[in-house]
Amino acid sequence: MADMAQGVLLVVEVDGGVIRPTSRELFGVGRALADASGGSLVAVMIGHNVSDTTDAAELGADRVVVADAPGLASFTVDGHARALEQAVESVNPAIVLLPGSTSGRDLAPFVAMRRGVPCLVDCLRLALDGDDVVATRPVYQGKLLTDVRARRASPVFATLRAGAFAAPEPQAGRATETTALNVELGPGDIRVAVTGTAEAPAGPTNLEQAKTVVVGGRGLGEADKFALVDDLAAALGGAVGATRAVTDLGWRPHYEQVGQTGKTVAPDLYVGLAVSGAVQHTVGMRGSGTIVAINRDPAAPLFKIADFGIVGDVFELEPRLAARIRALRGE
Ligand code: FAD
Questions:
Q1: Which residues in the chain belong to E strands, given as ranges?
Q2: What digits encode the pLDDT tens for the residues 95-110?
Q3: For a pocket test of ligand 1, which of 207, 246, 273, 281 has the largest count of ligand atoms closer than 8 A to its C-beta?
């Protein structure tokens, strides 16, 4: 077939001219799939004023498609779906990869459903098997992994689980071809108006990128006691996270929540203070490098996946731990 779809299209999210970490993770697996399918690796950047394609080129894209329009400045599923559909028509890929970000998880099934093609979500592994795309993905809140197979379609959509794939090292100075996509958006095309965006406070609260995350649980007893979590995070130079029990109680904002209905984190070091380790929590942090749990209940489930566990009272242990870390750091 002359028009047989080949290659991979990556939907890349950009923040301040730089490709977001979850989108960087698309490039390594995208390259492997593009090579296996005998096609090229094309990245599409959707937004407004997204003309700088250096980052995508250096991460290995063979070509970059830019869909730039004022109506695409903020993410709306209507607008970005329109741009993505146009990119799919123009590139004709075998596979479309999206990050497991909030917008990626919104966009992928929306466009796949409109085209009547498969959408594999939350993939931990992706490979081609003949014409099929085979993905490994978690089920039952991460208790089991399952392999799912999508028959060749035009194309197969997939979202990747954040933190599951390593981003390739950028090749400085690598250049690539850029094509512009002219997305026409009429007044009724975007049904949602984004009236403003609130920035999460800058600095160590950027949970998904932090190398160290300290999470506090309901066992702290009250909002003010969360100062312990802030203190240990500050001593370790890490970010603060919370369980859902804590965000439901209003002790911390939802954007700090880790787990199934919060963020997925995979830091080098995770420390859980008075966190029980419910599966809905661990599904969002079990990919962490080293897991440390402090809990007074030796049967707390978090100990089952912890590399280091301390059974004891967090109010007694945290100040000692933070002081020792500060001393070791010469502070
Ligand atoms: P608890 O389970 O109450 O645990 C508190 C722990 O603190 C206990 O283990 C206790 O032994 C310990 N403790 C108490 N006092 C001390 C002390 N002085 N010193 C040391 N240890 C102490 N949860 C999430 O976290 N993230 C999610 O995204 C999420 N999504 C969910 C989605 C659904 C659909 C559902 C049903 C639930 C979800 N949950 C989520 C909730 C989850 O099931 C748990 O209820 C929650 O994670 C428990 O939070 P916790 O560990 O802070 O509280």
A1: 8-12, 14-15, 18-19, 41-47, 63-68, 95-99, 119-123, 125-129, 132-139, 144-150, 156-160, 177-181, 212-216, 239-242, 269-273, 290-295, 308-311
A2: 999 999 889 999 999 9
A3: 281
